[in-house]
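User: Need the bound-state model for copper (II) ion:
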Amino acid sequence: MFRRIIAITTAACCAIVLSATLGAQTKTPPAGKKDHAFKGKVEKVDQKTNMVTVNNENIPGWMMSMTMTYHVDKDAALKDLKPGSKITATVYDGDFQTLYDVKLAPPDKK
Ligand SMILES: [Cu+2]
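Assistant: Bound-state model below.
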């Protein structure tokens, strides 16, 4: 009887911690801003600060080709990235600090 109550309490606590953590790690795109397709090559990944340095291709109307350091919308997106990774992402007008929906780009076709 007691054991069962403890198990239920533990499960509830974990759920709360998990949702709080997810909330903190997810950024929402700015509402009503135009989106742009972002393509670039990763130069550096900083797991401690959850930031990634990327050399991006020219994105007309958003930013010319340059190397910059960005936040990612979900911290988990960084775990698959390493220097040399090619990525795609979505970026928004007026927000030059965050990459949304980061994905590894498909490998170049032969
Ligand atoms: Cu820039």
